[in-house]
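Field reference: sequence -> structure
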Amino acid sequence: MKIIPITTGYTLVSSAVVNRETHRFSFAYTGLFQSRKKRICIPVKCFYVEINSHKFLVDAGWSKECKTNALKHLGFGLFFASEPVMKDEESAIYQLNEMGIKEESLDGIYMTHLDCDHVSGVHDFNNIPIYSSQDEIDYSKENKLRYGKMTKGLSLFPLTFNDDEEAPFGRSLDVFHDKSVIAYLTPTHSKGSIIYKICDNRSFALIVGDNGYNQDSWDKGYLPGPLYNKGNTREILKWIKKQSLRDDCLGVFCAHDPLSLKGVDNKNS
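Structure field:
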């Protein structure tokens, strides 16, 4: 098992994005009525994964377009709420090429959800399948204010989930049919959010997207600003905490965790 966090720059956001309790206004995460000077800067990460013979990305972070013309790429609403801060060499496609990993070697890009800071970088890739849940694909079409034009022109392949009594919300998918990657459908941060469990013979790691922003999310129960279902979000944070305390858990990886997690390079897989 190998998991490499790729920081594709940063985003300036309201503190309510990470913890909605920092503001009383329920839509404070949009940045409305807040000074830009009071925003916080958090990383925007995606993850390169190798397990068994599979190579893929989980999410794609910011596009290189966010360096050259972020306003045009995102549109005013998304730019206002999640202003990108990045350098030319920080896009996922650039960093993968620097690591000697070619696009054509990837099985695909597996999305945790379709918010702009996760799907933007997908636009830098060509002829690579992009997977998401059908719930998220439908939700993104119904909520243009939240998702904007980020999925426009993309061919998204829906993942088909199955009943699973052991899954946190009763739905899971054995992505490659070899138990190396288990996807859990988690209607929490968004309607079709996914957590990916990367497994080898002895251990596992979780890539949770925005189900948690950092360890305080599950240790202290901090809820993110954007929510689809508050009760479900509380439940998934309890589940993540329980998983994180297991002896065989190698790490919980969040898209915006400022801590410098080195990733995983486990030779047991």
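Note: The mean pLDDT is 95.
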